[in-house]
Amino acid sequence: MTPGAPGAVPLTELPLVESLRADLDRSGLTVEAVEGLLGPVASAALHREQRLPALREVDRAAGTGSHAVATLVRLFVLGGEVTRVALDAALPGTGTQGCAQLGLVGAAGQGRADAVRARVDLRPYAAADAAGSVNWWLTSDLGELATGAAVHPDHVLGVGGASTTLAQVTVRDRRRRTLDLGTGCGIQALHATRHSDLVVATDISRRALAFTAFNAALAGLDGPGLDLRRGSMLEPVTGPLDEPFDLVVSNPPFVITPRGGPGGAADSPGVPHFEYRDGGRAGDDLVRDLVQGMGRVLAPGGVAQLLGNWEHRRGEDWRERVGSWAQASGLDAWVVQRDVQDPAEYAETWLRDGGTTAERDPAGWEAGYLAWLDDFAARGVEAVGFGFVLLRRPSTGRATLRRVEEVTGPVRQPLGAHLAAALAGHDWLEARDDDALGAARLVVAADVTEERYLVPGAGDPSVVLLRQGEGFGRAVQAGTALAGLVGACDGELAVGQIVAGVAAILDVPVVELRSELLPQVRDLVRDGLLRPDTGVSSLPDPGPSSLTVGG
Ligand SMILES: C[S@@+](CC[C@H](N)C(=O)[O-])C[C@H]1O[C@@H](n2cnc3c(N)ncnc32)[C@H](O)[C@@H]1O
To answer: How far is the C-alpha of 79 from the C-alpha of 148, rounded, in Å?
Structure first.
């Protein structure tokens, strides 16, 4: 009975999975219940990969009587032992026997007091997306916290920060065909089933697909609407019979990993290969190729959203480098860099992620660290950017959107609906020259506020900021004329009429003011601070906001 033994995957045996779902439902194993059981201190410690405070809390709860949630958290989240009788009581329909048959646990014997250990991680997941709220239970491989050992190269990741980031930025309007590339435990695919007629979920890992199949069945989302395919990158979806997709989501194995050997083909000494994060390519080639190749699988109007890392190389502006990938894709492209690490920080992050620490394995730490630094130095890499890329095949065939920017501050997740509205805003602007924009009626978005900063005693503000409450939370400094124009955008007057009025008040030539203000108005529409007046409130619907336990 080895916890998290290599190769353990859950088996999708349908009647048993349904019985497990009913049991989990009755057990009350929800995100809220687990956080309530653990309390804020142990929950926060769990987020920092510390299990002792949580173990203490579950043992305290178990000591007060039979407590299904405590038993299940001890077993499936913390990797602790429970007795057979305790698991039978927590999941009475499935029992230890059924859980073993599903590949979820291993038991030392048939006796009531015999120890049972988890073979996979199973935990609740809660989110709200455009289709409403979800409460699922997801399985994945047990992590280092539960097993006390470094994870295996074919480790299947549970829901983490990157997974929820992608789920929250995903545009969630109704789609016919959606692709989730590198599905892992299936989290993106499960969300996509809620707004897609068909979801194709791919992974190079047979084990990941087994977890996805199980998780879909446990959520009641398996069936003809979910098609699981094994293969590398776009290969499983670019056969002669494959149709294009209306939405592609991917949290790909984008971690830049040093490669040794001739031509960089082999793994570097001291740097383990993890399938969940390393696509086996040099540098950021995998993200580049995915961006450049995405047009092969997108239908007209189809959107692709992916996470990625990209290198900042000496003497090259990263915006131009990533922008050139977007250019080569032939697609509309919007790249948002959210974070930047220097080479040393990057090496430390991914060494720790793989379970290597200086204390536990000084030689491995040093070899790995140097391999990363040498690899970056060989390509003149000064920093690594992390962010998301949105691509869209223009319906007209001609790409018009090319935006590469850095937004490092906090954003108001979920961003998906905001991004969809921004794409619509872009298209609206593209369809209007300045005369048409001047004839349009605009309204200030409901989440925008104006901040005025005055030098003490002054009558007029020296700085006026327009601040967006949702989306990217952008702040735009507005001069007197722009602030006046925005203040008058209530849908009554056309933009051109407002410009003429402001010009009269400020006593400046209207033509000059118009050519100064219209580009700024375009920026405000593009960023969602001003919206075309459609007579209906256009605040976006919420996309998924999600909660996981200790993720
Ligand atoms: C970072 S995980 C993402 C898992 C999940 N989609 C999520 O959002 O949490 C990347 C996934 O890509 C898979 N993968 C690795 N190399 C791949 C390849 N060449 N082609 C397709 N998938 C690959 C891994 O097995 C892993 O499941």
So the answer is: 9
- Cα-to-chain-centroid distance, residue 12: 26
Write the DSSP string, 180-208.
EES-TTSHHHHHHHTTEEEEEEEES-HHH
Rounded to the nearest whole angstrom, what is the distance from the C-alpha of residue 344 to the centroid of ligand 1?
25
Q: How far apart are the C-alpha atoms of 357 and 368, rounded to whole Å?
A: 10
Short-list 455, 321, 329, CA closest to 383: 321
Nearest CA to ligand 1 atom 18: 232
Query: What SS3 state is found at 43?
Result: helix
> Which residue in 160, 142, 154, 156 sits closest to 76, CA to CA?
142
Cα-based torsion angle of the residue sequence 372, 375, 376, 379 in order, rounded to the nearest 10 degrees: -170
Strand pairing of 298-313 and 381-392? antiparallel
Counting every residue written for the chain, the total comes to 551
414: preceding bond cis by omega (within 30 degrees) = yes
Q: Are 106 and 155 in contact (CB under 8 A)?
A: no
How many A from CA of 304 to the centre of ligand 1? 16
How many Cβ atoms from other residues are within 10 Å of residue 269's Cβ? Answer: 12
CA of 513 to the centre of ligand 1 (A): 52
Residues 522-533 have a mean pLDDT of 96
Mutate to test the pocket of ligand 1, among 156, 157, 168 (most ligand atoms within 8 A of CB): 157
Q: Is the Cβ atom of 308 under 6 angstroms away from ligand 1?
A: no
**Among 183, 226, 235, residue to substitute to test ligand 1 (most atoms within 8 Å of Cβ):** 183
Handedness of CA 69, 74, 76, 82 (dihedral sign): negative
Ligand 1 neighbour 375 (Cβ under 6 A): no
What is the per-residue pLDDT across 444-464, written as a single tens digit (0 to 9) for each?
A: 999 999 999 999 999 888 999
3-state secondary structure of 52: helix
204 lines ligand 1 (CB under 6 A): yes
Q: How confident is the model at residue 537 (pLDDT cuts 50, 70, 90)?
A: very low
Give Cα 425 distance to the centre of its chain. 23
Residue 125 CA to residue 545 CA, distance in Å, equals 11
Q: How far apart are CA 492 and CA 499, in angstroms?
A: 13
In order of 44, 168, 190, 193, the CA distances from 198 in angstroms are 38, 20, 11, 7
Residue 181 C-alpha to ligand 1 middle, in angstroms? 7
Q: In what order do the strands lie in the sheet with 545-548?
A: 132-140, 121-129, 545-548
Cα radius of gyration rounded to whole Å, the chain: 26
Q: Residue 254 has what DSSP assignment?
A: B
What does the alpha-carbon distance between residue 382 and residue 352 come to, in Å, rounded to a whole number?
Answer: 21
Cα 536 → chain centroid: 30
Per the structure block, which two tokens stand in for 307? 């996470």
Contact 203 CB / ligand 1 (< 6 Å):
yes
Instruction: Please name the helix (run of DSSP H) or strand (run of DSSP E) that holds residue 445, with its range, or none.
Output: none
Lowest mean pLDDT among 139-148, 425-434, 538-547: 538-547
Domains contained in the chain, CATH given = 14-123 (no CATH), 426-532 (1.10.10)
**Rounded alpha-carbon distances, angstroms, from residue 470 to 38, 416, 542:** 32, 11, 11
